[in-house]
Structure formats: C-alpha cells, structure tokens
Amino acid sequence: MSRLRWMTAGESHGPRLTAIVEGVPSGLPLLAQDVDTDLARRQRGYGRGGRMKIETDRVEFVGGVRGGETLGSPIAMSITNRDHGNWLDRMSPAPLPSTPEALTRPRPGHADLAGGLKHDRYDLRDILERASARETASRTAVGSVSRKLLAAVGVDVFAHVVAIGPAECGDLAGVPAGELRARSRASDLACADSSAEARMKDAIREAAHAGDTLGGVFEVVAVNVMPGLGSHVQWDRKLDGRLAQALMCIQAMKGVEIGAGFGAARVRGSEVHDAIAYDAVARRFTRPTNRAGGLEGGITNGEPVVCRVAMKPIATLKKALGSVDVRTKQAFEAAFERSDVCAVAAASVVGEAMVCITLADALLEKFGADSMRELARNVDGYRAQVAEY
Ligand code: EPS
Q1: pLDDT tens-digit readout, 231-282
Q2: Which atom of ligand 1 sits closest to the CA of residue 54?
Q3: Is the four-CA dihedral 317, 321, 326, 330 of positive or negative sign?
Q4: Residue nearest to atom 5 of ligand 1 (CA)
Q5: Summary mean pLDDT of the chain
Q6: Domains of the chain, with CATH numbers?
C-alpha cells in the first residue's frame, strides 16, 4: 500500500472540488498560499477558454492543518467552483426542479460515449462532469502538499513545455535546470525557448481560428533527488512504472517517456547508457549524460528524474466531428459549449503535481516518518551513509 494515500471528488460544475491526502508527517509548514500559487499556475496559459475567466481557484483546508502546520491527520482540501452558481438548475445535488435537457451527442475522444455505455446514462453530462480536466485542480492541490514535503528535503520539481502541435523547442540539453525552471516560470506557455514560444502561439492562434484544438509535449524534471527511491525487486515498486502511471492518468495524456524514452530504441547501447564517474570532492557518483532520466532498474540513481508526456488535442471541438445521438441514433455533430484551444501549459503543472505525489510517496516509503523531524533525521542519516559508500 502506498504511504501517501489520496483521492479526489467533485464534478466540474458541481458545488466544489475536494481532495483528501493522508500520510503526510506532522510538522510540515503548510499555508493556503502554497497551494493557491500552483492553482493559479494551472489556470494560466495562452489558449485557455472561457471557464478560466470565471474561476479564481483557491484552496480551503478543512482538515489536517492547524496554525499553518500539518498534524499528521488526513489533509482535506476544498476548492469552490464559482461556475456552479450558473448551473444550479442542472447541477444541484438536491432533486432538480425540472429535468434538464440531456446531452446526448458524445464528443469523439472524450469519455462521453464509453462512460455512458458503462454506467447506463443517456444524459452524458453524468459522465463528462467527472471526466473533465477540471478535476486536475484537486490533483494540483495534492501535488502542492507533496511539493512542500519534497522541498523540505531539498527536492525541487518543475516542468516546461517542449512542443505544441508542430512547434517544437530547439535543443535545450545544455541549459542548466535552474535556468530552464526560471524561463518556464516566466513564459505564459511554460516554454523555456522564446523563439519556439512565439511559433507555439502562432500555432494556437491558427488552430483557434479554424475552430480546432492543439496538444503538445511537456517535460517534468525533479532535481536533487537522492539515489535509492523506488525498487528493482517487484513490478509495482519500480518507480519508473509508477511515474508512468501517474502521468498517463492525467486527462488527455497519450504517451510517457523517461529519459531518452522512445529515442533509446533507435540507437545502440553505447549511445544510450550513461557512463559512471566519481567526484571525490562531492563524494558522489556522477554521469556526464542523463539519458536514463535519473532511473535505473526502477530506482533513482541521483541524477535528475526526467519524464516527457504527450498530450492529445482537447476533444471538445468548436468545429465538431461527426457523432451520433445516443437516444435516436441519428447522425449529428458532437456537442460543443466552450473549451480550451490548448491546455498543454496547464497540463504541465498537473504533470509536476503527479510527479511530486509519486516522489513524495516513494520518499515516505523509504524514510517512513510520522513527523518532519523524524523525516529530516532519516534523510540526513541516509545521505551521510551514501556519501560514505
Ligand atoms: C477545466 C475546466 C473545464 C474546461 C477544461 C478544463 O471547464 P468547462 O467545461 O466549464 O469549460 O475548461 O476541460 C476540458 C476542456 C475537458 O475537455 O475536460 C479546468 O478547470 O482546467
């Protein structure tokens, strides 16, 4: 069982989103501001739609935090959906005054049809409300708590967008992590290459004019991760597998790579594996390259953990694709209310959250602490042991 247990609840236009995370040690300083910063980052990005103008996501702690510190009890968080006020006649949990008009034309690429078949619902709103990427606000909140925990032991996680549709970043291999992080934070597409960013914006504008959407690729990097998180001994303990699952289950993700990823399949072993050296001053093993993405055999090796994630274009299209009314079986265009043209920058914040959660879980698994003091002692002791190796 994972050490960090968490779950989210709530519909996109329901009253609020909820997340509970259990397993965080006591004594971690935690303020609403820590979460709100990430929630705001998740809302931004060139190409977002009308909903983001309605919402200003803010967290409310309703359990597990007292006086700005965690208690070791489950942390419960709530984020109000401002838009719910516009949906009371259709989304109120109490019996509705009249049956709302059913949404019966599934969007190709969304969960609408598969979910409707599975749950025997003919109003596909019953599916899309939960399938919506609005849920990622709750995950982001859980990620912020995990990020605080990781920061307490010196681990930092950031993401940057490397492609939007056909517009790709140039080679960023020589750019130091701190610089990548700063550039990404300063860009409204979370992109560390300003000339690529301009091309990405053009691509988004063109897609918007065509009533279409665009996906892309983002990279999540975790720096200062100690070697030894995860395990080689069993399939479900391998950290690369856990990261892949955590990233792939974000709405609209279709591919995950670690390190060189698919590229490693096209070249010889000598061009893939990272030679090992030893830095006697820093008393640590080093690698001139990091094509393994910081993971060997399912265990962190002390190099930055690097994951790349491919997001498909959002399925809600203004210029809708062909669909079929689930009641009449007549051909129609799929339903459209509003949507983002491109949400890759926002997804990169969610990717950070999922990596934070997965690494925090692996950290607690290895160092199993009930309080932050105990965690710091265990991590320091281990780091000293590794330096003596
Ligand atoms: C989102 C909220 C949603 C969408 C988007 C992400 O709000 P609404 O449906 O009211 O416009 O803007 O989700 C999708 C495009 C999708 O297909 O799920 C959010 O909070 O990020």
Answers
A1: 999 999 999 999 999 999 999 999 999 999 999 999 999 999 999 999 999 9
A2: 10
A3: positive
A4: 133
A5: 96
A6: 5-388 (3.60.150.10)
